Give the backbone structure.
Amino acid sequence: MRIPRTGWLNIHPSLLPRHRGPAPVVGAILAGDTTTGVTIIRMVRAMDAGPIVDQIAIPVPPRASTRTLLALLGTLGAQRLMTVLQPWTRGEITAHPQDESLATTTHLLTREDGAIRWEEPAWLIERKIRAYDPWPRTFSWLNGRRIAILEADVLDTARQAPPGTIVQLDIARHPATLAVVCGEGGLAVTRLQAEGRMPLSADQFASGWPRLVGSRFTGTPREPG
């Protein structure tokens, strides 16, 4: 394969050198970044380390998930590439090196990354719920059944109980919520999905689970609920 005179360009959905690697959008959400963007680089052998040809920053939308943010950055990246491609090939753009001291790296996700560890703080679990949408999804176990947690909000306080315990069902709120204890604070879960079933709101889910309050989400199907 012949290498073009101007080299190969790559569109990366982060503000390089931050969040190099295979999961930059996930990394931005997990880190709580308020700003992200798109970087166009000239490719080199090292992963995502090439000189920057173009870069544009945007605010991270509130409650962004990987699904929604990646779509936004994909459109932005295509637009920026079309803007810089001709000036780049004419030699009118000078690429500048990345600052290696600011580099961070993301890892390739596995299905088990989605397993919720309820002893973690609520703010981190909430970020994971958004970061792992659409894959691998966050999940836990309830009475031996695998449950995907699809949407939730952070509660600043929660009752004293073991992490993972469902302490309240509030159907007066819109949307209805299940309050779940975390290692720090709690989660107000609003949408869930039992394996093999359709996604349900908290009140719809609760209607099929007698004595739900007091039950406990666990890390494996073998742990007591």
Q: What stands out?
A: Residues 66-89 form the longest helix (24 residues). The domain at 9-102 is CATH 3.40.50.170 (Rossmann fold).
